[in-house]
């Protein structure tokens, strides 16, 4: 497999945190495969930016919540074609609402994409990395998976579940040379947090010792470290990147 290109697969790599992770890992020397679901023009822009900087990237429209499509993607695009060195499970959505009024569909959709989707990617990637006897898997969870948050029972449950998945997978896959870690962002300025009202943002800022919202670069730097040569002895960890909001 040594003549195959070294690939980092970033789910939801077309916008926000995922975009910055894709661009950062490309600058680290990885060929990037990124997924998106609804905005091909945004994904193509990331591919062009990476190519413009001398890197390699491809974008795939692939719904993380569609198990069959994810399995087909690995069979057709990854297995035997590239050396899959890094998987970043980043794609995620919110469907916020108070628990008593939360629609079943909003619960199901968030669990399906934010938790089951990560499991599906992790399972497929671990088969390939297991054969290679090396690999890094990094799951993007959230501070609210550690703390809970009113109005986000579905999202917090998925993100807390992702921490459990990270630790279990780290134990199962260590013997095959695969590390599995999570990065838990605090409140980061992206389209996802743009939806929050000024009042909510102000309340958040009051709880952040470093007194500012985070940037997607802060998360990408943590991912780059966990994917890089200095992190080979780190597995099963949750790295909080949250300005001190949760310690
Ligand atoms: P974002 O700006 O909303 O971007 C989400 C990305 O995921 C987009 O590229 C989107 O693609 C993709 N995506 C959404 N649903 C998908 C699906 N079903 N299949 C494949 N791709 C899908 O989100 P973000 O703020 O960058 O968040 C990225 C990750 O960090 C998420 O897991 C989020 O939960 C986590 N996080 C964010 C914050 C924060 O403050 N922003 C805090 C903690 C954790 P399209 O554009 O094609 O829809």
From TrEMBL:
Keywords (A to Z) from UniProt: Fatty acid biosynthesis, Fatty acid metabolism, Lipid biosynthesis, Lipid metabolism, NADP, Oxidoreductase
EC number(s) given by UniProt: 1.1.1.100
Domain Ketoreductase, residue spans: 6-186
Family annotation (SMART domains): PKS_KR
Top-level taxon: Bacteria
Catalytic activity: a (3R)-hydroxyacyl-[ACP] + NADP(+) = a 3-oxoacyl-[ACP] + NADPH + H(+)
A Pfam family: adh_short_C2
Alphabetized InterPro entries for the sequence: 3oxo_ACP_reduc, KR_dom, NAD(P)-bd_dom_sf, Sc_DH/Rdtase_CS, SDR, SDR_fam
Pathway: Lipid metabolism; fatty acid biosynthesis
Purpose of the protein: Catalyzes the NADPH-dependent reduction of beta-ketoacyl-ACP substrates to beta-hydroxyacyl-ACP products, the first reductive step in the elongation cycle of fatty acid biosynthesis.
PANTHER family hit by this protein: 3-OXOACYL-(ACYL-CARRIER-PROTEIN) REDUCTASE, 3-OXOACYL-[ACYL-CARRIER-PROTEIN] REDUCTASE FABG
Family: Belongs to the short-chain dehydrogenases/reductases (SDR) family.
Quaternary context: Homotetramer.
Name of the featured protein: 3-oxoacyl-[acyl-carrier-protein] reductase
